[in-house]
Amino acid sequence: MYVADVDAHCARARAAGAAIVMEPYNTEYGSRNYAARDLEGNVWSFGTYRPAP
């Protein structure tokens, strides 16, 4: 899922009770990503990469 500010989004998710399963990191192709498990057990991936339309 695209988010503009991965670090701020991760901080909000953590404060809301999500378990961060992969801390924010930079990819070799220029995106910044992280992954979190929500309160229902679903794992979500977030990052700044957005393909061109």
Automatic annotation (TrEMBL):
<dbReference type="InterPro" id="IPR037523">
    <property type="entry name" value="VOC_core"/>
</dbReference>
<dbReference type="InterPro" id="IPR029068">
    <property type="entry name" value="Glyas_Bleomycin-R_OHBP_Dase"/>
</dbReference>
<feature type="domain" description="VOC">
    <location>
        <begin position="1"/>
        <end position="49"/>
    </location>
</feature>
<dbReference type="Pfam" id="PF00903">
    <property type="entry name" value="Glyoxalase"/>
</dbReference>
<keyword id="KW-0032">Aminotransferase</keyword>
<dbReference type="GO" id="GO:0008483">
    <property type="term" value="F:transaminase activity"/>
</dbReference>
<keyword id="KW-0808">Transferase</keyword>
<dbReference type="InterPro" id="IPR004360">
    <property type="entry name" value="Glyas_Fos-R_dOase_dom"/>
</dbReference>
<protein>
    <submittedName>
        <fullName>Aminotransferase</fullName>
    </submittedName>
</protein>
